[in-house]
Design brief:
This protein is mostly beta strands. The chain has 3 domains: 435 residues, 6 Propeller (Neuraminidase), CATH 2.120.10; 153 residues; 114 residues, no CATH class. It is 1% helix and 50% strand. It contains 1 helix and 54 strands. The strands form 13 sheets. Strands 10, 11, 12, 13 and 14 form a 5-stranded antiparallel β-sheet that branches.
Length: 749
């Protein structure tokens, strides 16, 4: 995955010269919205500016006020944007969080009148104001957390008998909110989370399916010799009655070192004196998606500030993976900071981060991770925008401020592409500039007969293709669990590829439908039905009439073994009996095995009399005839058929499951009337074969494998036979909740 396009965001001068910028990002179907100190702007999806407003004007807080710490999110549940900003008046001791909601998902319709949350706390003759507001939304509400300070800008050990943070929950139309704010930090134990930011996770997917009735709050505390990631589940989210369930997860000793002020190097800087201020080890971003939580923090790794990421299974509350964003490919001594994570529907992650080093000016970068990539690893650093000069811009406390966060989100349109927004040091001395960009998942081409089909646990239906060396996925609709997929082919006789499905439910049991992809969506045609006693064994043009037929075998007790070809004529399936085979025969694929220009089917005998015998069946004059071609032992498992050797002949691929040469791969092919075998390498049992076709090569068929192990589970490989040996190419991965349906014309075992 690589960055596709970028666009220039507002400059420091356009945002009233506020430091740091605090860049945030949200993307909807029609607009890209960015916020920063002290402005909000929105663009069309091509990066053309549509509006730029100062925060005090946008939130109507009054001329002369300078709102700060803005955030913006897009709520995929309601189709609305939400934007927030902090407002604190040290003269009058006011502390408010302003929130605005868009009218719709299209910002040409405007925004509703902003409201504010009164977050001032009065306790023990002292007053406390809320800083660093976060923002998230889910099915149940809008979530804002704040950290508290007194008006001397000191953070006490606790506030009003509780922790130093509070959570405010508003309903989606912002008509009411929790007051006073909830104190979820205290649920983790007295003082456990004092001084620690609670980051609400951005939520994607069906919370109810995982037993959630509210958001998850995430915090990290670094101790001596260990580190702890806290997850606090919000139960019964609402303005009243919410409760909290905390879990502490030991993540190991990531670092015992603190992150000093002005720590990150840049050209001409002295670390700890004039370097970039990179913040601390709070959680800077969190995403929950269908049972998995992802989060980012920062650690001091042997004298370098680096972004660190976590992956947690929230069903078991166990750490699945973690790693560092080292960006070593940008040079020596690189520091990374203010990382924000985004997650796609396939489980790919993208982390937007800032980076600088002794020879690298502060800039904006991106790193991605695909399902199945090695544990703890990210791909190479990609440039959103390089720094143009050193950056020395100090606040009243002498800190060379940067951040305090960055923007990264998944695109709600395809749920695969990513958008980013961050700052870099501009060519104007000691000023920041912002940059946006997108990483577009390459679209798949039209559905093909060899395109593997996948379904998710939620019923989403996709097909897969390799584009520019990476697997891409096209969502075409959805089907219920009662439908089984029984192969691809040119089934309707209209020249278009499609796939065959049979209903196994109780309402329309046995119904047959063909799905074809029309304008990016699947359209279904009912063609008839068959009972459960019929087993699908393959799809191909067995009758040599230019249309695919489906081959079915009877497994019942009345006419067991009967072979029938089904073909769609005038919109309905018609059936032709072509003979029969016993239950001792397994079907292992189809193609032109005999080299006679006719499509046949491969069968192997699993019985005791002629066990292992291989035959090819072809249909002529309305009946199946069989040709014996040799045999293989039961230790060989058939994995697919295709022109793997690139010689124009259909071959079959086998893997050895026996104890002598386990995992060995061989290609069997009929040459000059005799069956010959070529050993091409091997793979372990953790690899499942999920398809074959022209994925990488245009001159021969490849085969597709997915790893089902625990180390690199989900990784996808393409195997191609070159110079007599299988060569493997990584093409990404898919999460474990996706099931492949390998009943296409190439894989029919």
């Amino acid at each position: 995955m690589s960055l596709t396009s970028t666009f220039a965001g507002p400059s420091e001068a356009q945002a009233l010269n506020f430091i740091p910028p605090d860049p945030s990002l949200a993307v909807g179907p029609d607009n890209v919205v960015v916020t920063m100190n002290d402005a909000i702007a929105w663009y069309d999806r091509a990066g053309n500016l549509e509006a730029l407003k100062f925060l005090d004007s946008f939130f109507n807080t009054g001329i002369g006020h300078q709102d700060y710490d803005p955030r913006v999110v897009y709520d995929q549940y309601s189709g609305h944007f939400y934007a927030t900003a902090d407002f604190t008046d040290f003269r009058t001791h006011q502390s408010r969080i302003y929130i605005a909601e868009s009218v719709s998902d299209d910002l040409s319709a405007g925004w509703k009148t902003p409201v504010f949350l009164n977050v001032l706390i009065n306790a023990n003759f002292s007053q406390f104001w809320g800083d660093y507001p976060t923002l998230s939304v889910d099915e149940f509400g809008v979530y804002v957390t704040v950290n508290y300070f007194d008006f001397n800008e000191n953070q006490p050990d606790g506030v009003a008998g509780g922790s130093t943070s509070r959570l405010y929950i508003a309903n989606k139309n912002l008509g009411f909110y929790s007051l006073p704010g909830y104190d979820p930090g205290s649920s983790a134990g007295a003082g456990a989370l004092d001084g620690v930011t609670l980051q609400p996770a951005r939520i994607y997917g069906n919370e109810a399916a995982f037993g959630l009735t509210g958001d998850l709050l995430v915090a990290y505390r670094q101790g001596t010799g260990d580190g702890t990631l806290y997850l606090i589940q919000v139960d019964n989210a609402g303005a009243t009655g919410s409760s909290f369930s905390p879990v502490a997860i030991d993540v190991g000793n990531l670092s015992d070192l603190a992150i000093p002020a002005n720590f990150a190097p840049e050209p001409g800087a002295i670390s700890g004196v004039s370097g970039i201020d990179v913040g601390d080890n709070r959680v800077y971003s969190a995403v929950w998606r269908d049972g998995v939580l992802y989060a980012t923090t920062e650690i001091n790794l042997n004298g370098r500030a680096v972004v660190h990421w976590f992956e947690v299974n929230t069903s078991t509350m166990t750490l699945v993976d973690q790693g560092n964003v080292t960006a070593n490919d940008l040079g020596s001594g690189i520091n990374t900071y203010y990382g924000t994570i985004a997650v796609s529907a396939e489980g790919a992650i993208a982390i937007e981060f800032s980076a600088s080093g002794p020879n690298l000016d502060p800039g904006a970068y991106v790193a991605t991770r695909l399902p199945g990539d090695p544990a703890g690893q990210l791909g190479p650093s990609q440039v959103l925008h390089t720094g143009q000069a050193p950056y020395f811009a100090y606040d009243d406390n002498g800190d060379n401020r940067w951040g305090d966060y960055s923007g990264a989100v998944v695109d709600p349109v395809d749920d695969r592409s990513f958008w980013f927004f961050n700052e870099y040091a501009s060519s104007t001395a000691n000023q920041w500039q912002t940059q946006g960009g997108d990483l577009i998942s390459q679209p798949a081409s039209a559905f093909q007969v060899s395109s593997p089909l996948m379904t998710s646990a939620s019923g989403s239906l996709e097909y897969d293709q390799v584009v520019n060396g990476q697997m891409v996925y096209a969502t075409i609709g959805g089907i219920g669990p009662e439908w089984e997929l029984d192969g691809n082919g040119f089934l309707l006789g209209d020249g278009q590829p499609g796939f065959l499905m049979r209903n196994t439910g109780t309402v329309t049991t046995g119904a047959l439908e063909v799905g074809e992809v029309v304008n990016g969506s699947v359209a279904f045609t009912r063609i008839g039905g068959v009972g459960p006693e019929w087993q699908f064994e393959g799809n191909d043009d067995f009758l040599n009439d230019g249309q695919s037929q489906f081959l079915i075998r009877n497994t019942g007790t009345v006419i067991p073994g009967t072979l029938v070809l089904g073909e769609v004529k005038a919109g309905a399936a018609v059936y032709t009996k072509i003979g029969g085979v016993g239950v001792e025969w397994e079907f292992d694929g189809d193609g032109d095995f005999l080299g006679d220009g006719r499509q046949g089917f491969l069968i192997r005998n699993d019985g005791n009399v002629i066990g292992g015998a291989l035959y090819v069946g072809e249909v002529g004059n309305g009946a199946a005839s069989f040709t014996r071609i040799g045999g293989v032992g039961p230790e060989w498992q058939f994995e697919g058929t295709g022109d793997f050797l690139g010689d124009g002949h259909t071959a079959f691929l086998m893997r050895n499951n026996g104890p002598v040469i386990p995992g060995a791969l061989e290609v069997g092919e009929i040459r000059n009337g005799s069956l010959s075998f070529s050993q091409i390498g091997g793979v372990g049992p953790e690899w499942e074969f999920v398809g074959s076709g022209h994925y990488l090569s245009t001159t021969k068929d490849d085969f597709l494998l997915r790893n089902t192990g625990s180390v690199i589970g989900g990784r996808l490989l393409i195997g191609t036979v070159s110079n007599g040996a299988a060569q493997f190419t990584a093409v990404g991965g898919v999460a474990s909740e996706w099931n492949f349906h390998t009943g296409n014309t190439a894989v029919l075992a």
